[in-house]
C-alpha cells in the first residue's frame, strides 16, 4: 500500500496536531514552517468543556497540559485608583485548564518530530495541482509533489493567498489593534490578573507562572496594519501613542514595554471564507476560520485537526469527499466560536464611557451568586456546541 504524502504548512498548533493523527496511521507528513525555529512565545491559551477535553484525552495530552498549566485565578476590572469594580472568575478567562501557547507548541513538536519531517525556515512559493497531486515550489528546498496540501499557516495564510487569491475582503477588521508581550511583574501580581480600561483603550496584565514576570495585553482602537507595520519598534510606538495620558499605572507598563523582547502586534480581525478547500488543498485552523483574539483559536485548531484527520482516514483516496464532510461538520461550530473575535476589542477597550460603565455593571451582576450558573453557561456555550465524531 502506497502511503499518502501530505504537506502541512505551519508548525503552530493546527499543523502538528493534524500531523500527529495522520502519522500514527502510517501517512507521510512533511511540515514546513516559515520561522527558522519553533515559535514558543505567545499568550496563554485555554480549553473548556467536554469537546475540548475529549480531543486532548484522545491525543494523550490532558495530563501533560495539566502539568504545565498556568494556575491563573480571578481577574479584576479596576478603576483609575486601582479599586476593583468587578471580578471575573477563572473559568471565564482561563477555562478548565490554561497553559502558555509556547508550552503547547513544544509538547506537540516533541510528540511528532520522530515520525514527521519538519522543515524550518522555508515556505511554499508555488502550488500547481495535477491529476496526480500538487507540485509545490519552495523558497529553499527543491520542488516536490504531494498528494494533498494543508494550509495551517495562520490568520494571514500564505497557502490561502496563493490558492484562494488575494486576501482583500477575506480578513474582516474589527476596529482594534492588540500588542501582547512579557513584562517584569511591576504590579506584583500573584496568580491573578487586572484589566484597566478607558474609552478606546485598555490593558490586561496577568501573572500566572513565574513571580517575577507578567503577560500584558494592550488593546486600542486603530486601523488594519499595513505590511510594514508589524515590527517591534512600530508596536512600541503605537502603544506609546495610544496610551499617552492614560490613567492608573499604564505609564509604568508602557515604559516596561520598551524592554520587552517577545512583542506580538496585530489588528483584531477574523477570516471570512466561502469554502475551506480547493481541489487537493484544504485550510485548517486560523487559516480557515481564525480570529486574532477571543475566537478560541487554539482548541478549535485541535478539534479541527481531529475532524480533518478522521475524515481523511475514513475516506481513503477520496479527498474531495473528506474535505466536504470536514467542512460541513466544522463550519457551524467554527463560525460560532469565531464570533468572540468581533467582540473582544470592545470587551477590553469599550469605545465610550457609557459602554465602559455598562460593561462593568453587566459583569458585576453576572458574577453574583444568583447568576453564577447562567454566567458559566454563557462563557462555555460556544465551546460546547458540537458533537465530536467518533472515528475509532
Distinctive features:
392 residues, alpha/beta, D-Amino Acid Oxidase, Chain A, domain 2, 2 domains, FAD-bd, FAD_aromatic-hydroxylase, FAD-dependent oxidoreductase, FAD/NAD-bd_sf, FAD binding
Could you please describe the fold and organization of this structure?
It is a single chain. The protein has 392 residues and is α/β, with parallel strands linked by helices. It has two domains: 5-67 and 100-170 and 271-341, FAD/NAD(P)-binding domain, CATH 3.50.50; 75-98 and 174-269 and 350-380, 2-Layer Sandwich (D-Amino Acid Oxidase, Chain A, domain 2). Helix content is 36%, strand content 26%. The strands form four sheets. Strands 5-4-13-14-15-12-16 form a seven-stranded mixed sheet, sandwiched between helices. Strands 7-2-1-11-18-17 form a six-stranded mixed sheet, sandwiched between helices. Strands 8-9-10 form a three-stranded antiparallel sheet.
Write the layout of secondary structure elements.
Blueprint lengths: L4 E5 L4 H10 L4 E6 L10 E4 L1 H10 L3 H6 L7 E4 L5 E5 L1 H5 L2 E4 H10 L6 E4 L3 E6 L4 E5 L5 E3 L1 E4 L6 H7 L6 E14 L7 E7 L2 E7 L5 E9 L10 H11 L7 H8 L6 E8 L5 E2 L2 E3 L2 H4 L7 H18 L4 H20 L5 H5 L4 H14 L5 H13 L8
Parallel strand pairs: 1-2, 1-11, 2-7, 4-13, 11-18
Antiparallel strand pairs: 3-6, 4-5, 8-9, 9-10, 12-15, 12-16, 13-14, 14-15, 17-18
